[in-house]
Amino acid sequence: MPTPFSRRHLLSTGLGLGGAALFSACSAARPTATTPITAPPTPSLGTPAVQATLRAGVAQVDLGGITASTWLYGGVLPGRELRAKAGDVLQVRVENGLPAETSVHWHGIRLHNAADGVPGLTQDPIVRGGNLTYTFRAPDPGTYFFHPHSGVQIDRGLYAPLIIDDPAEPGGYDHEWVLVLDDWTDGVGKSPDDILAEFKAQNGTVSKGMNHDMSGMDGMGSSPLGDVGDIAYPHYLINGRVPTAPRTLTGKPGQKVRVRVINAAADTLFRVALGGHMLTVTHTDGYPVQPVETRALYLAQGERVDVFVTLGDGVFPLVAAAEGKTGQGLILVRTGSGGAPSATVRPAELDTDPLLMAALLPTDAARLPEREPDQVEQVTLNGQMQPYAWGMNGTVFGSDTPIRTTAGARVRLQMTNETMMAHPMHVHGHTWSLPGNGGLRKDTVLVLPMQTVTADLHADNPGRWAYHCHNIYHAEIGMMTSLLY
């Protein structure tokens, strides 16, 4: 069945079905908090260049005239930015003041296994009132973020930017802005735990093939990408504010700005544009790409993008429209006089041809050395909305067969989406190279309905690694497996 995808996607992603040799692996019961964790030993990393304390706790936050009681890092939304240089060792003490166990995952960082922050896979959870110190090296420059890998806690306010600077980068811009996109319900609508409990109560069995039912999803619209989310949220935020009370970024006409955009949402893919401006995309998921100009772009859950903008004169809306839903996030860019646009403003750029991150091409320096795969794995993405169930290879995490490989192997994953839902797939501890896109490097890739994405991975970081959909409800209900070596 044809689906109307972006023209750039059809031309550039090189998607297609192909045969694959399956490799056997032993089944694994789902780890629990009491399961002994076997991980490679923590390497000797030397003196930390960056030290920080991160306290997770219950607090109230002003979303812009709307007060929500939620869970935050340091009492602010988003959490305070953590910044280092490529190659630095970071040491972060996490103190758990929450009424539940927690963890911290350093999303996109190719760190050693013991610091990856996945309870039951790489660590025991941080108990209530407890603490844990994460020490790791950040080898690659780029735009990253951190969040819990415990239940659906990311759908509260527990997230913050993690920016790794490149000491060799020439700079050449006047400002740098970091924007965090989010969907919001905690403290103003249903709690994330209640939403998950309602989904679990359906007790659905994972269906294979095209069997995606959106019935009963009030407040959901349509998207050329297919179905892109499960939940109609009351609010969508940029840097912690609703569009009726947006934050304002200031500059001068003609100045050049680097904008780092992080999609920390649990369930929402955003369509992003800055009214009256072109965006020049230079990086995705931390890696440099051949620069592309676009009026708008798609950013899926867990993806990040760096763009450069030359500022015009006036007041301009930067909008993150919730794709396939009703609502948007808004932040203002002011360089001159003029009144602020309305909370519902829709820049014309949003209705052009948004760029998909998987349609980009890497720079030569970002490519993995070309090599034939040593191992090919077929991975199917399965499930449906009614009754709610999501999984991989026809089953759910805990009943799955982990992918096993050996150190030094080049592993090819052929991810076939057998649902009518787009799934942002994320791998821990590694980056993928997409051979259909000239070797584009990404750790999170959007797999569109009824399509196959081929992704190569170099097994150079031994451990037990999570591999899952970054729609947190899909992952928590079972769309997750692991890579072991």
Keywords:
485 residues, mainly beta, Immunoglobulin-like, 6-stranded mixed β-sheet, 3 helices, globular, disordered N terminus
Which segments are poorly predicted (pLDDT under 50) over 5 or more consecutive residues? 1-37
The N- and C-terminal alpha carbons lie at a distance of 38 Å
User: In CATH terms, what is the fold-level topology of the largest domain?
Assistant: Immunoglobulin-like
What is the average of the pLDDT values?
A: 91
Tell me the fraction of residues in β-strands, as a range: 35-45%
Q: Look at the structure and name the CATH superfamily of the largest domain.
A: Cupredoxins -  blue copper proteins
CATH class category name of the largest domain: Mainly Beta
Global Rg? 21 Å
Task: Let me know the number of strands.
Answer: 30
Form type: globular
CATH architectural designation of the largest domain: Sandwich
In what order do the strands lie side by side in the largest sheet? 10-9-12-17-14-15
Helix percent band: under 10%
Number of self-contained structural domains: 3
Q: Figure out the total of helices.
A: 3
Alpha-beta content class: mainly beta
Q: What about the largest sheet?
A: 6 strands, mixed
